[in-house]
Design goal:
With 314 residues, the protein is α/β, with parallel strands linked by helices. The protein has eleven helices and eight strands. The protein has an eight-stranded parallel barrel, surrounded by six helices. The structure holds flavin-adenine dinucleotide. Flavin-adenine dinucleotide (FAD) binds next to strand 3, strand 4, helix 6 and strand 6.
Length: 314
């Protein structure tokens, strides 16, 4: 099912929706562990999960395999990330075919980060320069088979700090045929809420899904916020810095901070939270429990889990 329909269903039922991002692990054991974790996290009731695409197509076969397994074996509605620069166009076609055959009907269309060994990205053959080119290409080749999402940047992107210009470019991606937006991680709820208002004022009327990065450890929190140049509200640092060597205290305080941010987002009208799980379940689960969004004996998930055979993947 298309993600936009999943979002509409939740909206109509007056229930908040959640989704989880995973990335392809480097080892076979890591892949098996992740499948087990995906299976367990299925029990938290995500509307969909998504699987990232390695910069330049690195581990792209594994992304395709994971999409196929999640969609057709685990019965999870799955969205495949796909980038369009720094790799041959043939890979774009192969990936779209693999998703199509696996029954996956959702693609997050991206330009792509530069591959690890390069500092900048390069336009690829086939005329792909920006994500909107990929959106158009998928629409031309597959009509409405795929629902297409795109990335949004409430605090600016790596290569462009001009937030207003990025909103203009986001509008172009939506006009090219995308029907939902997932944002980069952030910790400043007020800034995000103002950014959504600006997007709406520019005529971006599709669902905007905030990307939520739970706090696992202090070191990872600092590393990621520095790397992505994410603004950290001063009161967050004041709460986390004194307990930085106590992982359990960081998780507890981090859970409360992230949950409070999510409450503000939901109070502003946001109905779906997208979690960057970093392939780990605990921090996301803690936030969902804090928000009262994790299933419990009183509020079990509504639908039965699909039958899943034992996988035997190693
Ligand atoms: P675009 O929207 O194409 O924008 C890229 C740059 O081009 C921006 O600076 C923009 O302002 C500029 N631009 C766009 N249109 C125009 C125009 N008409 N004229 C001039 N300039 C223009 N990367 C991966 O490699 N794999 C992933 O799986 C992945 N997943 C992601 C998931 C999310 C939710 C997000 C937000 C990002 C993800 N990324 C991923 C990172 C993303 O690929 C990079 O941030 C990349 O640098 C930009 O991708 P984009 O799709 O936003 O590009």
């Amino acid at each position: 099912m298309h993600i936009r329909e999943k979002l509409a269903q939740k909206e109509a039922a007056g229930e908040p929706g959640i989704s989880f991002e995973f990335f392809p692990p480097k080892t076979a054991q890591g892949v098996q562990n992740l499948y087990d974790r995906m299976d367990r996290m299925h029990g938290l009731g995500p509307s969909f999960i998504d699987v990232t695409w390695g910069a330049g197509g690195r581990l792209s076969d594994l992304t395709c395999e994971m999409v196929g397994v999640a969609q057709s074996v685990y019965g999870l509605e799955t969205c495949m990330h796909l980038t369009c620069t720094d790799m041959p166009q043939g890979k774009v076609d192969e990936a779209l075919q693999a998703a199509y055959k696996a029954g996956c009907t959702n693609i997050l269309a991206l330009r792509g980060d530069p591959p690890r060994e390069k500092e900048t990205w390069e336009a690829a053959e086939g005329g792909f320069r920006y994500a909107k080119d990929l959106v158009k290409y998928i629409r031309e080749k597959y009509g409405n088979h795929f629902d297409i999402g795109v990335g949004g940047y409430p605090e600016g992107a790596d290569d462009n700090s001009d937030v207003d210009q990025l909103i203009d470019h986001l509008k172009e991606k939506v006009d090219a045929g995308s029907s939902f937006v997932i944002t980069q991680m952030f910790y400043d709820a007020e800034n995000f809420i103002e950014w959504v208002k600006k997007c709406r004022a520019k005529g971006i009327n599709v669902p905007i899904i905030p990307g939520i990065m739970p706090i696992q450890t202090y070191a990872a929190f600092i590393r990621r916020s520095n790397w992505t140049k994410t603004k950290v509200p001063p009161e967050w640092m004041e709460a986390l810095e004194p307990v930085k060597n106590d992982d359990s205290a960081v998780r507890d305080i981090g859970k409360a901070l992230i949950a409070e941010m999510c409450r503000k987002l939901m109070a502003s009208g946001i109905n779906h939270l997208h979690f960057y799980t970093m392939n780990l379940a605990q921090a996301t689960k803690l936030v969902l429990e804090e928000l009262g969004l994790a299933p419990s004996d009183e509020t079990p998930i509504q639908r039965p889990l699909p039958w899943r055979p034992s996988l035997g993947l190693g």
